[in-house]
Automatic annotation (TrEMBL):
Source organism of the structure: Bradyrhizobium brasilense
This protein's UniProt keywords: DNA integration, DNA-binding
UniProt record similarity statement: Belongs to the 'phage' integrase family.
Protein name (Swiss-Prot/TrEMBL): Core-binding (CB) domain-containing protein
Domain called Core-binding (CB): residue spans: 91-167
Keyword DNA-binding belongs to the record: yes
Record InterPro entries: CB, DNA_brk_join_enz, Integrase_DNA-bd_sf, Integrase_DNA_bind_dom, Integrase_recombinase_N, Phage_int_M, Phage_Integrase
Length: 167
């Protein structure tokens, strides 16, 4: 570890990765090492910016607060909020697909297109990926849908090779 000024240092982890950090003690006497940024060669202006950041953090420490604990709490709160929002705001693939059909059916040339969309998704997609959230669907999930057994005109194959294209 290379020490610079009043706790600002270049630290090297056991893994060999280096980072700029601030070493300090809390009001309770607990020693802390707060990562400021991953190591990169910096010029005088970059070092001055790190020194300024360390000086601001020392003000927080002097006020009796622990900036690392505060940052960790902020990160945890942000992650919890993002998880909560994603659980509330995201519909399943089936819900999104049904909504898409409802919004676009008036623009299709005839009622048969509506029936084709609904029947194809109901038969092949919903049983496999219908309950998944759209952002959770992987390439493997799509391949499961396309590689399903499919029979047409007495010929067996997969949905991908045997189904007719619908425009």
């Amino acid at each position: 570890m290379w020490a610079h000024e009043r706790g600002l240092c270049l630290a090297v982890a056991k893994s060999g990765s280096a980072f700029w950090a601030l070493r300090y003690s809390t009001a309770a006497g607990r020693r802390r090492l707060m990562t400021l940024q991953q190591y990169q060669p910096i010029d005088a202006a970059g070092l001055k910016a790190l020194e300024w950041q360390a000086a601001e953090l020392r003000k927080v420490i002097k006020a009796g607060r622990d900036p690392l604990a505060e940052r960790d709490a902020d990160t945890a709160a942000t992650a919890t909020a993002a998880t909560t929002v994603s659980r509330i705001a995201v519909d399943t693939f089936e819900e999104v697909a049904r909504d898409y059909i409802a919004q676009h059916k008036d623009g299709w040339k005839n009622a048969k297109h509506l029936q084709q969309w609904e029947n194809t998704l109901e038969t092949y997609a919903y049983p496999i990926i219908g309950k998944l959230l759209p952002h959770e669907i992987t390439t493997d999930d799509v391949l499961k849908v396309l590689r399903q057994d499919h029979e047409r005109a007495g010929k067996n194959g997969t949905l991908w090779t045997g189904a007719r294209e619908t425009i």
